Give the backbone structure.
Amino acid sequence: MNHVDLKEAITKGETSLGIEFGSTRIKAVLIDRRFETIASGSYEWENLLKDGYWTYNQEDIIKGLQTAYREMKQEVERNYGVTLRTVGSIGFSAMMHGYMAFDSTGELLVPFRTWRNATTGAAARELTELFQFNIPERWSIAHLYQAILNQEEHVPRIDFVTTLAGYIHWLLTGNKAIGIGDASGIFPIDEASRNYHPSMVKQFDELIAAKGYPWKLEDLLPKVYLSGEQVGELTETGAGILDLAGDLQPGILLCPPEGDAGTGMVATNSVRKRTGNISVGTSVFAMIILEKELSKVYPEIDMVTTPNGSPVGMVHANNCSSDLNAWMGLFREFSEAMGYGVDSGKLFSVLLNKALEADPDGGGLLSYGYLSGENITGIDKGRPLFVRSPESNFNLANFMRTHLFTAFGALKLGMDILTENEQVAIDSILAHGGLFKTPVVGQKILAGALNVPISVMSTAGEGGAWGMALLASYMINKDQEESLDKFLEQKVFKDVEGQEIAPDATDVKGFQAFIKRYQAGLAIEQAAVDHLLENGRD
């Protein structure tokens, strides 16, 4: 659209707004009907440890919402000379999981407990055994049941339990609603009914019946909605909360609130069955859209859903690029000590590209980039380790290739459960994250590691707030009976450029040799390093 058309579209409210609460930033994105970003705003924040729980202050939640919206609104005014008074649709998303419990007056009973808390181990294990369904520690139901096991005083007073996205939606609309993707991080979802699994809800109520609480589980949870459904309107109170200047008008339609995993799928066009996306950063996770549910319970695999209700197998590894980044920092120090200052972009480009000159298996080198414990491999503490034998071909190219290999090591083991144990078919995977700013290398290594084509699209950096805006736009702009995957493929991503790299047979064989060393060393990695560290303290 040209400037005049955009100004008219903004005035008429032919736009969609997505606001996502990430772990370090709250971001607001306004898009036009061509799905391009018109304006954005953000608010930086950090979690804090309070009374043993990782949390965000309720005041910061509201302040961040208002600040991100205000910055976006100011950008609209600055660029288009229009005071934003309405939009066509709004959607809210946030970090999945966690625990927000309210009483009947709307009071938050305990500070927001985020996904980061590892305080629900007993509850997660007991519920996994009861349901025969993997319940991760970060899920809302694990937090609720752990509060019951702890006999916390607030439990009998609970009237409503939701996620952060569900809370914002409720605050601004008065509706206790949740998108099915976010709901799948609250409680297991039944694919047939696309609702909380009824037999497991019954099992939970029977489990706690003797406690005599004045509520049943179903009474506490938000109602589940699918993408494309209308879930309330912005109330006058909600408009006043969102826009402190009072310009925003009530009555704007809202779509179901979603989790950040769902918005990531949407932002990467990965909601169709047999596709997936991989997010690479400090940690790494893969979301694979399944054709059917898994045959058994795997603690390494979280079962969640897309925003339109399809089952998703999620493989989450705690460690990915942190150790690689630490080595990059060491090389930067060396270059500075030699009097050759180098910018980060060139440093990463040069060193990562050396991996393309390496022996296919990394020359017999071995590394574990565990800055923290790793649940997939059973390592409970962070113990970065680099090992070589006298016979190893120790050079810079092999060193870099090995550290790229190990960044995907734990992920590979989790993915093997899907592809080998469960015979899950994957047509393509879209990858996103800072590692792929250097073209080709990370893509090529990852394709070889997983033995599946890996794509990187030009929109992959747009982020979850953009994905949430797309879901809001889908609600008001979809054709009758148009599915979310068709909407994304035929309208949003129709002309988006991307680059796909197929797995190279030599890379696949080389990574297989590396992963054998990697698995063989796991049995001794933690014990050996702990022994060395303890002796070093004597």
User: Anything to note?
Assistant: The mean pLDDT is 93.
